Every structure is written in C-alpha cells, then in structure tokens.
Amino acid sequence: MDAFRRNLKKLAELAVKVGLNLEEGQEVIATAPVEALDFVRLLAEEAYRQGASLFTVIYQDNALARTRLSLAPEEALDKAPSWLYEGMARAFREGAARLAVSGNDPKALEGLPPERVGRAQRGNARAYKPALEAITTFATNWTIVPFAHPGWARAVFPHLPEEEAVKKLWEVIFQVTRADQEDPIAAWEAHNRALHEKVAYLNARRFHALHFLGPGTDLTVGLAEGHLWGGGAAPTQKGRLCNPNLPTEEVFTAPHRERVEGVVRASRPLALGGTLVEGIFARFERGVAVEVRAERGEEVLLRLLSADEGARRLGEVALVPAQNPIARTGLVFYDTLFDENAASHLAFGQAYAETLEGRPSGEEFLRRGGNESLVHVDWMVGSEEVDVDGLYPDGTRVPLMRRGRWVV
Ligand code: ZN
Ligand code: ZN
C-alpha cells in the first residue's frame, strides 16, 4: 500500500473510531458529495469493521443543484425534502450516528441569481431543522470528516493543475487531521487533553464577557448566563464521547444574545453556499448586528442574515490560537470547517444547547441569553493582530490572548 492509501485508510479509521466513536451494532447515516464515492466506500468498510449494523449514504450533486436553481419555478424553491430530514431526525433520535463528508466546490453555485440561491437555502434550512436539532443537541454521536473535492482543491490551489491540487489538498488534510502521524489515535488523545484543559480553565473563571481588540475590531461579547465552554471530544446525551469536527482547534461557548457591543472586522474570507464573502465588517448594538457590510459577496450574506430575527445575533464565540496546524499552512481554504479552525471566530445565528448549563430549551434558553435561528454561520475574526481579554462584571480584565497566542 502506498503512503497515500495508507493515510486515507488512517483518516477513515480516525473518522469512525475518534470522530464518531462508533458503537458496536450502531447504524450510520452518511452524507457526501458524489465525487467522494471511493472515500465513502472506505469509510463504510471501516464502519462495518467496527461493528456498524447498517451504513446508509445520501449523495449531493452540485450539477443537479445548479439545474434546479436555474430551471425550477420561483415558488418551488421554498420546497425541500422534509420527509427525508424528518426521517434522518428520527433515525438520530433512535441512535443512528451521523457521518458528514465535507469538501465542496466553493464556486459550485457561482453565477446563479443570489435571491434564488438564498430562497432555496432558507427553504432547506427550515426543513432541515429537526435533523439539525438532533445533531446540535447531541441526541447522537456525529462527526464531519473532510474529503479533497476537486472543486475545493482548485479553489485552494488555483495555480496547480487539478490532479496536483487534489493531491496537495489531501496532504494538507492528512496533516491537519493528524492522520499522517505514526499513531493518529494517540495524537488525538493528546490534542483532546490540551483542549479540555483550556475548557476547564475558562469554565472555572466564569467570565462575564470577552473583549476583542485589533485593527478594525473593538468588540465586547457578553457571555450567556451559565455559559459552558466546550472543545474537542464532547459527550452525547447518552454520555458517549465523539469528536464532531476533524480537524478542530477551537474552544467555544455561547455569547449572550443581547450583550454584544462594538465593531468587528473579519480576518479571513467566508465561503457561503458556494459564494465567497470577503471583508466582512459588523457593528453591534445590544446584541444585534445593526450594520453589516462586505467587500465581496455582501448580498448573499445579507440575505442569509434576513432569515429570521436571530440571524443578526451571535450564537457562538470561539477562541483559536493564531498559531495552529491549519493556520500554519498559510492557506485560505474557502471552507468553514477549516477556516474557522484557523482563527478565533464568531457565529451569526443558532447557539449550541450544550454551551449552556443544563441544556435549557425554549423560553429558558432565550432568557439565559441563548440565541435561536435557522442559520449558524461562523466567520473568522482572530489573527496575530488581535488580543482577547476576559472581563468580570466590575470591569476587571484577564488577558487571555496576545497577538493571537494563549497567555494563560
Ligand atoms: Zn466554532
Ligand atoms: Zn460554529
């Protein structure tokens, strides 16, 4: 077996053993781009070796999506396969694990009318809600594992021929997921320990707010009442640990939906439903982004932020050192799973239930400052030029990051 096949196999093993931490006899529901056929077969093989009872995959096809967005009648764009998403939600609640194969062409939907793209995305987000809820509330174990999609590789390495670009992207994927290490599973145990130490420190401090300061950024992010920091492996409702993201470098918690004030500038581009959004600037008043601009892709971003009342509020704040395996590549990935883990970030929209003590829902969730929305969009604000402090209600500050590095 050559080095590439060996690393690919190790990545599949990581996804099943560390990402999902698949239980003997468990069912797996996978989603993947059609281009990932071979990788999905490898994942399925690994899952069956680990005792999976049934591996079902749902493929996504960009060409089909483009055809629909070009030809379907306007009103039909609200339609989404709710029957499928309800079925997925039911399967997750009944114990099926969720395996998402990520990696897509960021330009997949380029050139299509943004209002049609936005309408279809909103329709899909509405229908997907029950399945998303089962995932975000950790009803089951889940993970997202990257795949070097040719369209993605072309975007990351625009000057290389496609075949070489794909090869290079796989190398980067193996690096940042630690799949190329001698014993990736042991590497992940050490990585999880380091993340869990940061989580324990931040949970013990009980900060009232975080303050971000850098070029174009002077932002105070209030933290939700009884907020909990998370990062690395996380337990499902039944107490089984899984690693939702491969790779992951972040520790994150819930902002208070009504206590975010100031201005902030994005430090990296954001890929949104196939469109690149660059140069985001936002101004917050009492938790709401009252002013949002972008140098590129603004229309798509604003459409998404008009999804509902919560879309202009924050549902996540995450700290990531500016020096980490993903940032070290020096690449812009045009993929949130990678780019968000390269830098400290904020997310517009839905907050994760597990970032509040006791996983409250409904009124209690909102009262404590948790945010509700159909969307969850991470955008990167951290860099080697950004400092972060923890704030107490009396104004006392504790330096957490200086020039993008942890100082605690
Ligand atoms: Zn995050
Ligand atoms: Zn997020």
Mean pLDDT: 95
Q: If helices are DSSP runs of H or I spanning 4 or more residues, what is the number of helices?
A: 12
Largest sheet: 8 strands, antiparallel
| Strand adjacency order, main sheet | 14-13-10-6-5-18-19-20
How much beta, percentage-wise? 25-35%
Report the end-to-end length measured between terminal Cα atoms: 44 Å
Can you tell me about this structure?
It is built from twelve helices and 20 strands. The N and C termini lie far apart (44 Å). The strands form five sheets. It has an eight-stranded antiparallel sheet with strand order 14-13-10-6-5-18-19-20, with no helix packed on it. It has a four-stranded parallel sheet with strand order 2-1-3-4, sandwiched between helices. The chain is an alpha+beta fold. It is globular, with a radius of gyration of 20 Å. The model has no long low-confidence stretch (mean pLDDT 95). It is 35% helix and 25% strand. The protein binds zinc ion (2 copies). Residues 250, 252, 316, 318, 340, 345, 378 line the site of one zinc ion (ZN).
